Hints:
Layout (H helix, E strand, L loop, with lengths): L5 E6 L5 H9 L5 E6 L6 E6 L3 E5 L10 H17 L3 E9 L6 H12 L4 E6 L6 H12 L4 E3 L8 H14 L1
The structure holds guanosine-5'-diphosphate.
Guanosine-5'-diphosphate binds next to α1.
Amino acid sequence: MGGLPEVAFLGRSNVGKSSLINALAGKRGLAFTSNTPGRTQSINFYRIDGNLHFVDLPGYGYAQVPLATKAEWAKLIEYYLRERSSLKLSFLILDARRGWMEKDLELKEWLEVNNRPYVVVASKIDKLNQAEQQRGLKAIRQHAEPLPFSAVTGRGVREIWQAITKTHQLQ
Length: 171
Ligand code: GDP
């Protein structure tokens, strides 16, 4: 698994993480490569274009998940985010309708403390009308500039890929 640069995807359960990964991968030949087994959750790696891994980290924030499982999630994610030298960029995905939730803010601060570069994505933007979009994006901007995204319309795919490419070129 080592070697190839990695781009990680983080977000609350149901935020649209899988849809984002699929939209970005598009015809680029997404190939599931391996996973690191956990008790109930795992980290999935997808090889993209033969020279990059997308890393699908388990979603967080299901209220009904028992505390022990949450602790395990935190351990797995924190270990990966802290130790992984091939990790180049993380996407922190927010639902454009909901904006920042407490866990998202915790994760954002954690990424900053650990000097991990990240980009915020405002997902499901198609579910909002123009006025709602402006309000939603403005609220998210209080903490970070988001890239609006929709898996339905494809809005944002190009900008998100540009962010990945830019990070790549900086290495
Ligand atoms: P995950 O649990 O974060 O991986 O979320 P999924 O990608 O499975 O998406 C959760 C639900 O939201 C599914 O019903 C998706 O069809 C829906 N969804 C995801 N992204 C979008 C989007 O951009 N627009 C709309 N309208 N629905 C979306």
